[in-house]
Structure formats: structure tokens, C-alpha cells
Amino acid sequence: MTIASPRILVLRALGLGDLLAGVPALRALRRAFPGHELVLAAPAGLAPVAAATGAVDRLLPASAPGRAVPHRLDWSGPPPDVAVDLHGNGPPSHRLLTGLRPRRLLAFAHPETPEIDGPAWYADEHERDRWCRLLRSYGIDADPGDLLLPRPHATSPAPGAVVVHPGAGAPSRRWPVERYAAVARTLRTAGHRVVATGGPGEDELVARLAEFAGLSGADLSAGAPPLDELSALVAEARAVVSGDTGIAHLAVAHATPSVTLFGPVPPSRWGPPGGPRHRALWHPGPDGDPHGRTADPALLRIRPDEVLRALDALPEPGPTPRPLPLLLDHAHE
Q: Which domains does the chain have, with CATH numbers?
């Protein structure tokens, strides 16, 4: 009789950037429990990225509107040997996992779930560091820098292009599309190909960018392209320009040079690792609402010429069609 492997259930039913920020923790769990099947509860569309981490054996589809905790998980068979809450600091995520009766639960402490003896939650901690600290508190070594993904098998439709992504999960994190267009026009004037991408429901935003910047239909990738296609585009890009959203984390995962525009959340919580390959633009000020309905004032203080200077300072990612000299005098607000 075949004895099934014990299972680890990891809850992170959030978006692309959240999954990528959790890669170091997932890999630490994989190393700590080599004989377990690691099951990740996350949105079904993230399966290609989950597989690329090399840490996840199976994705259990799970999501809820507004980044909420799912009401239930479609878990079958014996309870998890270990359950890990990488979704938040509870209590709804704690209760969802304890309802499956795991032998052991790894999670942050919360006053409404005093039975969980986990470490304290720090709201201003960087997302990658947070989950690695959680695991270290349980004796599991975790490296926040272990976040790179292998090159995707798909072929990029525009190798060497600069990818511009004007969208974000909330209006408060969306830099004005007219400013993205100013950056794109300057890049095109300097002789670079620019490709605009968008997420679900952002076709109109991408179309406006194309109109303002004079991009052709061949340089648009709207309608939330499949993740393997988007990964290939980013992995072979000259650079990625975006707000604080999933594609910025994808650029980090593929070591593609990037410029990320921050506001209302500072890069100290969601920014790229240090070094010249990634530039985080941020005008310090009071924290804003990352899910707000209007562009955050800190984000609006970033100007196109700052973005262009940051792009100009990026190193080469490897063999590319040309360097990235910019004509800064073409930038407009």
C-alpha cells in the first residue's frame, strides 16, 4: 500500500506581486520539509509562477474579492501536517486554517486568536522580510534575497523593448497616464521600442497611453496577457517602468532593470532589493491609502524627467539591441 506524503498548506490567496514577495518563504519551507507535498492556496491564474518557483508541488485555487480571506478552501483528505499563514496577521486567515485541523500552524500572533503562539506583526516591515522572519521564529532558515525565477520557456514578442505598465490594483497607485506617455514618447524619440502592458480591466488605460505616445497596435499587450507570455516579455526587456504592482516584482524576479514609482506605500515595505539594477522613486510623506480611489499626492510628486533620469542610470541587463541613452529635453509633464 502506498503511503501518501505529508502535506504543507500555505495560504497566500493574493495577487502576482504578493506571490513573488513570498517566494523566499516558499523556498525556505521547501528546504525545511523536503519530504512533504507543498500545496499553495492562491488564485488559479498564478499557477505558472507558482510552478516556476521550484517550491510548490500543487496549487489549490483560492481567492476572494478585495484581497480578503477566502471563505473556504477546497481541501480534501487528511488534515495538513503543517499549515502556514502567509496571507496576513489574522484572525480570519488563522481561523480558515485552524478549521482544517492542521497538526501545526505557523502564523503571526493576534489578540483574537491567543491560541497561536507566533511572533509579533510589524506593520512597517518589508513584505519579503516579514515572512522570512515568521519562519525564522519557528526555527526555519529563510533568505529574503532568494527571489529570482528561471527564464521562462516562452519567447518574448519584443526582446529588448522597454515595457511601460500604467496600471495598478488601485487608483491611488496609478501614476497619470499622460506622464507615462511622456516617458514613452521620449524613449521612442531616442530610438527604443516601447511596449505597453495592462492588467484585467485596463484595456482603456493602455489604449489611452498608446494614443498619447503614438504606439502601434503591435506594441500593446492589454487584456491581462497570460503569465507565461508576460514573464517572457519582462525577462527579455531592456527595462520595466511601472508603479508598485505585480509587474515590478516580476522584473525583480527576472533581474530585469526597472524603475518603480511609489506612493502611497513607501519602497521600504514593497520596494525592490538594493543595488543599481532597480530604481525606486519615492517622495517621502505621510502614508496614504494603498486602495484609495484617487492618485496619491506622493505619487503625483514624481515627474517624467525623474523617471527618465532613473532609466538612464540603469545598467545593461546583458546583450541588448542598444544602450539606453535618453533625450531628457523631450520629456513633458
A: 7-137 (3.40.50.2000), 162-330 (3.40.50.2000)
